Give the backbone structure.
Amino acid sequence: MAKKEQLTLEDKLYLVKFEPDEESHLVIKDMATCVEKCERPCTRFCPAGVYKWDEANKYIIVNYEECFECGSCRISCPFGNIDWKYPRGGFGVQFRYG
Ligand code: SF4
Ligand code: SF4
């Protein structure tokens, strides 16, 4: 039996295409909560690495253009601090094969 070939992350990223909107569909409601109360798990659980901690300026950078729309941050932020919605029609991630 032929061995199934495994795709690398780079291979998988090739299979998606992004059409970013001008406006973010991911909004942090209260940055002070991120800075003062949270251990910032969003920088680890997001599979696309959308959330990045900016140590110099003490805030979370949100690279919403790279979001896979998996919905994890909608339920996994311990403070419910992310206002999450799908991008407007025609924008966001597109999967090449289904
Ligand atoms: Fe802010 Fe939520 Fe990320 Fe914590 S997990 S840093 S509260 S967005
Ligand atoms: Fe990351 Fe998923 Fe949230 Fe998009 S919806 S920012 S991919 S965790």
Q: What stands out?
A: The CA atoms of residues 69 and 93 lie 7 Å apart.
